Amino acid sequence: LFLAEFRTKQDHDLFICIYPSYVNCKKTLAEGRRIPAETAVENPTCAEIRHVLTVGGANVLMENEMYSREWNRDVTFRGRVRVQLKQEDGTLLRHDRII
């Protein structure tokens, strides 16, 4: 299920974007990893990221987009996850409601 429809730019700004490469221990920083390799996981998928965040209580959207640094264009590497971090009034969600 891919949802990418935001009603307004304000709706769009409530979410951050997570590509699987951001948390992939097999990627280098130059290839797009954004967290330490020791805390990253091996070859995560968008579905896995969505599942973990949903179980944690986060409001999550999936989009069928390709990360610009991903060299492999295979369909298994497509997708990104958007996670809501702000409420409609612009205030941050409470940390216990995100994960």
From TrEMBL:
One of its GO terms (biological process) is SRP-dependent cotranslational protein targeting to membrane, signal sequence recognition. One of its GO terms (cellular component) is signal recognition particle, endoplasmic reticulum targeting. The keyword Ribonucleoprotein applies. Keywords: Cytoplasm, Ribonucleoprotein, Signal recognition particle. SUPFAM superfamilies: SRP19. Pfam families: SRP19 (PF01922). GO terms for molecular function: 7S RNA binding. The keyword Cytoplasm applies. It is found in: Cytoplasm. It comes from the Eukaryota. InterPro entries: Signal_recog_particle_SRP19, SRP19-like_sf. This is Signal recognition particle 19 kDa protein. The gene is SRP19.
